[in-house]
Amino acid sequence: MKMLFFSDDYSEVDQAGKELQAVGIACEIHNAPGGVVLPLVPLCAELWIHDNKDSQRALIRCAEVGVGFYKRPSRATPEDGLDWEMPSSEAAAREAAEAAAA
Q1: pLDDT the model gives residue 74
Q2: By Cβ atoms counted within 10 A, which residue in 7, 21, 26, 77 is the most buried?
Q3: Residue 22's domain spans which residues?
């Protein structure tokens, strides 16, 4: 067995486990120790795959669906006071051309 990833968000680990099981990768969720031994460390859920040979396929699947360590960040809203949206390639090329011309 091999731990694929962990999170303090159980639903995230559960979603990743379901995605892996859907493509035939056997896995299970373990609760990592926390809280009692290390009171400042939150209880985490860990996703373990049964067969180490499935590691690469599991990582690829997580990347495809954006779960686990491949979870895509949510975009900030104007209310957050932050603008996290990356410029499009066209806008970036236009800005580069304008900077080169200046």
Answers
A1: 60
A2: 7
A3: 2-74
Q: In what order do the strands lie in the sheet with 2-7?
A: 2-7, 45-49, 27-31
Distance of CA 49 to the CA centre of its chain: 16
Angle at 59 between CA 84 and CA 74, to 5 degrees: 20
In the block, residue with structure tokens 């975009």: 75
Per-residue pLDDT of 61-77, as tens digits, reads 988 888 877 776 665 55
Classify burial at 16, counting beta carbons within 10 Å of its beta carbon; exposed 0-12, middle 13-18, buried 19 or more: buried
Length of the chain, in residues? 102
3 three-class SS: strand
Higher-confidence position of 11 and 99: 11
- Residue 82 inside a domain? The answer is no
Place of tokens 């690469």: 56
Inter-residue contact 15 to 59 (CB < 8 Å): no
